[in-house]
Each structure stands twice: as structure tokens, then as C-alpha cells.
Amino acid sequence: MSERTFEHIFSKRSKESLCEFLKASKISEASNDHEHIEKEFKMWRRLIKNLGNIIELPDNKSQSLTIEENSCSKDLQVLPDPTNSMDNSEGNIVEDKYSAKYLVTVIQKEPVEVIQLLYRDALPHINSQTMIEMEDLMKGISPCDTLVKCYCKELLFKMMSESIEDILKKIFNDFYTQYSSLVIEEIIGFMKLHDKLDLFLVYLNSKSTSDKEFSSLLLRAFLDSCKGSLSRRDLFLLDYFISKNSECDLMKMVVGILYSSAMELRNDKDYGKLLFKIVDHLGPELISVKNQIDYILSVHASMWKTKIRKKSEKYLKEI
């Protein structure tokens, strides 16, 4: 397509305005101030041919500008508004950055640190519909473990902690069905790091009701993650994970972990309450961990000590 040109004679008013603009831009370019003005000057310098023949720019000592009438004849091309193009381009970049395609297919091979940062940045800008689109895209590409983990930890679980939505419940169930071990692992990590869990636990409770194995898998994964002494947060999570349906073998593992922290938590009421709950759950099976229970009771000093002792003696007499 051939380029059209036209002749333009600047009016006195236009010359004054253009003069001031170019004057400010040129001064800004020399002093490295106002980068946005400097960029505009350079942009117009590219668009207008032979700018030096049109505008006599001042040196550092002079502040005067003169514009020669008719000097830009046949040199000023009719072009699209470059600022509009730049604005549209920038808008597309922002939109793409938060699109499902970008958040799945474009970044899927990035290091975990990069994906985490991108997802944290995207979280305030996406909604449940984007999450569904991301899930659909993942089904088609067999995503790496890193992408699945980051999706759960940085996006899905945080949304679940903020609101109760049927769509989020469906996504969670779908992901658990497809990537159960990864989802379980990330649930444990998420619960250890975040305090705001009330709404998140609603989703887990719903899943536990429909899937009896779910709670046991959570408890087993949590026990596997426990290293060293227990914290008070660990006690809270153990109390949540243990239910009347928990397997006796898992309860015995819990006793072993409590045993290792008996001295550090000897005065902790939550520790004593949890141990009472476990003793009551084990019943006569308590015999297999009797030595550990006896040691814990020998050092424990909370109000639960007497209750635990009476309960354990009762079950041991039934054997």
C-alpha cells in the first residue's frame, strides 16, 4: 500500500504549542528527566522525516525555537495515531498475562519460583471462570507436578479460603480425583502456613463426608510431614485430622509423635486433650502403646493427666 503525503502549514498557535512541546522534550532528553516526555520526543523524531530541517532546536544556552513555515512540506506522513497503538498493545499484554492460556500453556515449563510469583500476581485479577478454563487446559496437556501444585497452593486453595462456591468445590473434587497425592501434599503444606482456614475446612469436611478415605490420607500425609518437635499449630491440625473413623494404626503413629514431644509440651492443655482423645479412640488397642503412654503420663502436668490415666487404666483392665 503506497504512503500518502500532504503539505501542512503550521498556524501561529500550532507553532507555539509544538515549539513548547519539542522544547520541553529536548531539554528533558538532555537532563534525563521525565522519561515519558523523552520517549514522546524520540517517537515524533522517528515519525517526522528530516526533523532537523523543520525545527531549529536550541542549544543549552538558548531557549528560543523557530519553526520554518512550509519546511515540512511532503515530509509529514499520514500515519495512525501511535499513542493509540501503544495503549492497545499494553492492554493486550495485561489481558494475556491473566488469561488461562498464559497461566497454563505459556508458563508451564518455567521454574517453580517463577510460576509461584506469576500466580500470586494473577490471583486478584482472575475469577472462577478463569480457574475452570485453566483446569480444562491442564486436562489437554498433561501438566507437570509443579504446575498442579502451584495451581492448588497459590490459586485454588486461596480462593477456597475466601468464599464458598459450588464451582470451586467442583474444581477441587476434579483435581483431587485426577491428582490425589499431589493435592493431599499441598493441602498439608497450605494448612501449616495459613491461619485463615475456616472456609477452607468447609470444603475439606464436605469431601471427608463423601469420601471416607480422604481423612485417613490427610492424617497419614500430615504424620509423614512431621519432623522434630510438635508446635501448637501441629496439635490443632492433628486434632482436626483425627476422627472416629481414623485407623488404629494411624492413632498409634500419633502416639509415637506425641511421645517424642512429651517433655516440650508437658504443660500444654491442648496436648493433654489430644492424647485423651487418642486414648479413648484406641480403647483396648492401647496395650500396644502402653509404654509410650506411661512415659508421657510420668512427665505430663496439665489438667488432663488424671483423666488420661483413668481412661487408659479402664481400657487396660478390659484386656
Largest sheet: 2 strands, antiparallel
Helix tally equals 17
Q: How many separate domains?
A: 3
Which structural class do you get from the secondary structure elements?
A: mainly alpha
Looking at the structure, what is the overall shape? elongated
What ranges have pLDDT less than 50 throughout 5 or more consecutive residues?
Answer: 1-8, 47-58, 60-91
Number of strands: 2
Estimated share of beta-strand residues:
under 5%
- Terminal Cα separation, in Å? 97 Å
Assembly classification: single chain
Going across the biggest sheet, name each strand in turn: 1-2
Helicity range: 55-70%
Please write the string of helix (H) and strand (E) elements.
HHHEEHHHHHHHHHHHHHH
What integer is the average pLDDT? 80
Radius of gyration: 34 Å
Describe the structure.
There is one protein chain. A two-stranded antiparallel ribbon has the order 1-2. It has helices at residues 12-31, 35-47, 51-54, 82-97, 100-106, 112-122, 128-141, 145-160, 166-178, 180-193, 198-210, 212-225, 232-241, 248-260, 269-282, 290-299, 305-317, and strands spanning 55-56, 66-67. It has 3 domains: 12-79, no CATH class; 95-210; 243-319, no CATH class. Mean pLDDT is 80; it is low at 1-8, 47-58 and 60-91. Helix 8 (145-160) packs across helix 10 and helix 9 packs across helix 10. It has 17 helices and 2 strands. By secondary structure, it is mainly α.
Key descriptive features of the protein:
319 residues, mainly alpha, 3 domains, two-stranded antiparallel ribbon, 17 helices, 2 strands, 1% strand, elongated, disordered N terminus
